[in-house]
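Hi P.,

Sorry for the delay on this. The queue was packed all week, but I finally got your sequence through. Input first:
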Amino acid sequence: MSSIALRRRAQLGLLLGPVSLFLAVFFLGPLAIMIVTSFLAPGLYGGVEWTWYPHNYGRILGFADPMFEDFDPVYIAIFLRSLKIAALTVVATLFVCYPAAFCISRLSERWKNFCLFLITLPFFTSLIVRLFIWVLILRQTGLVNSVLLNTGVIARPLELIYTDGAIILGMVYIFIPFMFMPVYASVEKLDWTLVRASLDLGAGPIRTFLRIILPLTAPGIAGGAVIVFIPALGNFVVPAILGGAKVMMLGNLIEQQFLAARNWPFGSALAMMVMAVMLVLLFVYVIVSGRRGIDAATGR
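Then the structure:
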């Protein structure tokens, strides 16, 4: 191996070494503790007992220990509801961000930078403050119900808050920048000469969108979907504020098991279930992205 190659490897090691060490200590370490804890028995007064106990997963998947507990389908229901809300959040954020990315990409540089600043502006304020503003807007005596009642549209206040819809609205509100940035990056790189060529050859707007625009912007859509879905699935702040005690998601259930019920093994098992879903999604995303890269390189 030449001295240049050795020098580059040494530089790469110096650059990646601190980050790799930090992740190994503060990510892989706690993750390993969570995995081990999820297979231990819960203690009588909190904590854990060093006994092999796979039934923490059984409470979720249907093989609970019949000596101490019964299988409760409520956990599967919460898991499926969390998946549904996270998926709807991805669809809603994409529905908002996709056309907005095209509009902003066609603006002049001055207005483009201004719009990008507005999209990132919510990051400069507290998340809790922004969510409580939605509480003031959606509650029974809030802005929406007051306007509808005063204009005679409705006779009684609507149940807008503490519903699945309120949670999805709050999720969309806070995750729009996470979807917009990767979608906007893919739209900015879109080769408009291909679009014009397709239209000139008589493909039509719909066929041009399906055969040219959508495939070329698909990496941004996939990246944004993963970035939004993963934190939405485990989020507990938005459901706690806009869902109250009526709507339970996985994030709230995990928080309750660790802080209120003090059943750390079961809370760890729930967290590992969320982690498994995330890993599957990331694995699919990497496989699909790799295939698209190979197809692009081979011209298929």
